[in-house]
Amino acid sequence: MPMPLKEFQTVICDGIVAQFGEVRALYRQIAAAAPDRIDEARRKDAAIVLQAPTGAGKTRMAIEVMRRLSVEERVLWFWFAPFTGLVEQSRKVLTHQAPELAMLELDADRQLDAVRGGGVFVVTWASLAARKAESRRARQRGDAGMSIDDVIAMAREQGLRIGCVVDEAHHGFQRETLARAFFCDVLKPDYALLMTATPRDTDMKAFERATGYFVGEPADWASVSRADAVDAGLLKRGVRMVRFIARDGDTAQLVDFEHLALRECVQMHRTIRKTLVGVDIALTPLMLVQVPDGKVAQEAARTYLVEQLGFDATAVRVHTAAEPDPDLLLLAQDPTVEVLIFKMAVALGFDAPRAFTLAALRGTRDPSFGVQVIGRIMRRHALLQAQMDALPVLDHGYVFLANSESQEGLLLAGAQINTLTKQAPELGTQTVVTMIGDGASLQVVRSGEPLSLLVSRAGVHVLDAEAERDAVSSADTTSEVADALVGTPFAGMANATQAALEMFGGEGAWPAQAKSVAGAFVLAQENIYRYPRRHDAPDRLRGEKLPPVSADFEAGLAAHVNFSPEVLADRYVARCRYSA
């Protein structure tokens, strides 16, 4: 039975359906008066952008729009998945949420009789617009039926509308010449719904230029706020991040920091698992480990997790494909799998609602890292969605970053995390602990705030952190813990933990259970206070943004200021007092 939509999802669907309803009325009016202008009407009014955070239910909203439009008239839909491996996932959701829509197969249903009543083809751009002939057999007439081009043309002649839903529209099909040509010259959709979690104005403008379909400005899009999805229980409230940055060119140190990031991530993972057991929720949390491309890095991570961190070999699985595929989806849903190791390339589009923690190792500086990878751990599992009073530790995602960049890469490191803060509508409030060598800093980053890397730039001396365990265990105060950790990768952790506790109203004494980042986060979250906004207070403030500096600014400044030799010589004039 289809799941009912949340209130905010219903509002969005109502708006999209109403807008497409106006387009439908326009088509009927044009068909009666000026049929030659139908293409112009499509380009001007047929496209709507649906912008929503990962996990907010874009797919369900799109299916509801398709279902309601198909009640009003016959529509032949094309659902474009970003990867072949996600086709089956999309088909399952469509079948469950809209069983009245006929599911069509490219290999078997390229016949007019099969599409006469409408239906849905779930496809990829590669299956219809690839350069290799064997990859686009659906575009050719043969024993399997007509070409899809002919099917679309004949369906349109029979009075069907053509609709398309582009999943992850930001993935950039407009850069592919053949896909763009298919969209503009063959598909020519009467209704086009472009879904995206990470919209960029440049991407949408490029789509507009390439296809001629007008998408408007961001204010014209159907947008879902992250707050709505959080309040509805679909998304966690925010993300907690810890960043370990190694010294330049020190491979041994880098490996140690990667191991440290894995150890801290595992500690957080086990804290979450224990918390779930304590509140009687039968859910096995999933830990994601993102590694660079290559089997060596994947196997090294798996070996360390099994041999050093105590996971059962069957609980740690490695996904090696370059794209999401059915195997990845099964692993993400298998409760016997506790750790999933994967590459950057598969960060897009797959569902992993069990995931709470992510350890990102070397090679993770892709600009889309902030939204697409972290988006995997921001969903709330169905077992938690009904529990709006869930413990704070279960209402956040946790990211542990090990970066090979240090001194010369410090600005790049800051820019990388600043990319996350600029996506605050996607990620929510973030608590970021940054550790470089013997320094650590903590910052709570809310919407629109930049991240400051206020840490020591001194060199890093890596020792075996495990050797200091006894000293830490016997310490009673924050200062004693800090002294015990000097010279280890944990140096500065005590002060960062204390900062977190003070920031959220915690006690000043060093608690025994806060010997790791996980403990610090748990203690900090226990002391969060929320103050609701007064009903008569504005929900937003108007700001002013200065215009960009013109190209001739410096020349204008030089022309305005007197730089003559006489004026410059005045710098050396000293006032002297003479007496007769």
Task: Give a short summary of the structure.
The protein is of the alpha/beta class and 580 residues long. It contains 23 helices and 15 strands.
CATH topology of the largest domain: Rossmann fold
Specify the CATH homologous superfamily of the largest domain.
Answer: P-loop containing nucleotide triphosphate hydrolases
Sheet with most strands: strand arrangement: 10-11-9-12-13-8-14-15
Q: How many domain regions?
A: 2
Radius of gyration: 28 Å
Q: Which segments are poorly predicted (pLDDT under 50) over 5 or more consecutive residues?
A: 404-427, 452-473, 501-514
The level of helicity is 25-40%
Counted beta strands? 15
What structural keywords apply?
580 residues, alpha/beta, Rossmann fold, 2 domains, eight-stranded mixed sheet, seven-stranded parallel sheet, P-loop_NTPase
Q: What does this entry look like structurally?
A:
The chain has about 575 residues and is α/β, with parallel strands linked by helices. It folds into two domains: about 5-230, P-loop containing nucleotide triphosphate hydrolases (Rossmann fold, 3-Layer(aba) Sandwich); about 235-525, P-loop containing nucleotide triphosphate hydrolases (Rossmann fold), CATH 3.40.50.300. It is built from 23 helices and 15 strands. It has helices at about 5-35, 40-45, 60-70, 85-95, 110-115, 125-130, 150-155, 175-185, 200-210, 225-230, 250-280, 295-310, 325-335, 370-375, 380-385, 410-420, 425, 470-475, 480-485, 495-505, 515-525, 555-560, 565-570; strands at about 45-50, 75-80, 105, 120-125, 160-165, 190-195, 220-225, 240-245, 285-290, 315-320, 340-345, 355-360, 395-405, 430-435, 440-445. An eight-stranded mixed β-sheet has the order 10-11-9-12-13-8-14-15, covered by helices on one side. The N and C termini lie far apart (about 105 Å).
